[in-house]
Automatic annotation (TrEMBL):
GO terms for molecular function: oxidoreductase activity. This is Short-chain dehydrogenase. It comes from Phyllobacterium brassicacearum. The keyword Oxidoreductase applies. GO terms for cellular component: membrane. Keywords: Oxidoreductase. It comes from the Bacteria. InterPro entries: NAD(P)-bd_dom_sf (IPR036291), SDR_fam (IPR002347). The keyword Transferase does not apply. Residues 1-26 are annotated as: Disordered.
Length: 289
């Protein structure tokens, strides 16, 4: 495991890789910063972007080895620990990343937590952590990287991962969690209106429920709802498409989640009638008191 000193980033070694990353190490290679990269989706995204020739700065709270995350020891990635609840650590990360990469095409913030409980059972500690990581985190990440992205030619994109739908669809038995995803959707919308006319875009990315360790307690629930689980490498490809297209919002969904998202945007009572009320009963079974 390697932790970087912000003044002198260290390129970590480990696994060996071949392919575009091995040959596009010059100034023209695309670049990205991935925060919350040690989880199931982050790991898949690090591997994909490294294989696509990106130079990367990777981060999460724990210490980790860049090569273990990308599967390459070709110098395509460095790792620095950072905490999205701590603006000072994000400032250090941003400054190390701009120094190491020169320019940053994309920042992807995958840091997030999702405790799911009945309304009365959310302990204060969970509520505080949800607000700190899922709401303040994206705000602090944006504030840390925005000045540098504004200055560089061509701007850049900051992708924040939200929940499985568009942030406005709030499922029962996860109300405090749902509140944080709604807050993120509003933050991204407001920031994009403010950034209109610049080359910087924020993106709200809603991954479909995926085959990751953190989601595993809910696999049975999703199956009973008829929502198919997605492999993390498929989600990673959609995040890459979102970076390339600079989408302001992208909800992966499957047919069912997309339909509920659309219905809920038109009228929450229509969404209730076509499925969300039924979902509530299933979710309750997976949220014992
Ligand atoms: N997997 C799914 O099915 C699914 C579906 C919808 C939405 N999402 C969302 O997508 C994101 C990624 O999902 P995932 O499955 O990869 O989650 P995960 O496996 O739980 O990974 C979360 C990542 O966030 C990091 N993190 C947590 N708190 C942090 C903090 N304060 N500062 C910096 N990093 C922090 C964790 O590393 P450290 O502990 O080392 O900091 C880890 O790298 C999450 O926001 C999740 O809620 C996932």
């Amino acid at each position: 495991m390697t932790q970087l000193n912000e003044k002198s980033p260290v390129i970590t070694g480990g696994a060996t890789g071949t392919g575009p990353a091995a040959t596009q190490q010059g100034k023209d290679a695309p670049t990205a910063v991935l925060i919350g990269v040690t989880g199931g989706l982050g790991h898949a995204l690090a591997r994909l972007l490294a294989a696509e020739g990106f130079r990367l700065v990777l981060a999460a709270r724990r210490e980790y080895d860049a090569a273990a995350l990308t599967g390459r020891n070709d110098g395509s990635a460095i790792y620095q620990s950072a905490d999205v609840t701590d603006p000072a650590s994000l400032e250090k990360l941003a400054s190390a990343a701009f120094e190491h990469l020169g320019r940053i095409d994309a920042v992807v913030n995958l840091a997030g937590i999702s405790p799911r409980k009945p309304i009365e059972d959310y302990p204060t500690a969970d509520v505080d952590a949800l607000m700190a990581v899922n709401v303040k985190g994206p705000i602090f990440v944006t504030q840390a990287f925005l000045p540098g992205l504004r200055k560089q030619a061509g701007g850049g994109v900051i992708v924040h991962l939200g929940g499985a739908m568009d942030g406005r669809v709030a499922l029962p038995f996860m109300s405090a969690y749902a509140a944080t995803r709604g807050a993120l959707a509003s933050y991204v919308q407001g920031a994009n209106r403010e950034l209109a006319g610049t080359n910087v875009v924020l993106s709200f990315f809603g991954p479909v429920p995926s085959n990751t360790e953190s989601e595993s307690p809910y696999f049975d629930m999703w199956r009973k709802m008829g929502v198919a689980l997605c492999e993390p490498n498929v989600v990673a490809r959609e995040i890459l498409a979102t970076i390339r297209k600079r989408r302001q919002a992208h909800v992966m969904g499957g047919g069912l989640l997309k339909m509920l998202t659309l219905a809920n945007a038109v009228s929450p009572s229509i969404a209730d009638a076509i499925g969300l009320r039924k979902f509530g009963k299933l979710i309750k079974q997976h949220s014992p008191r």
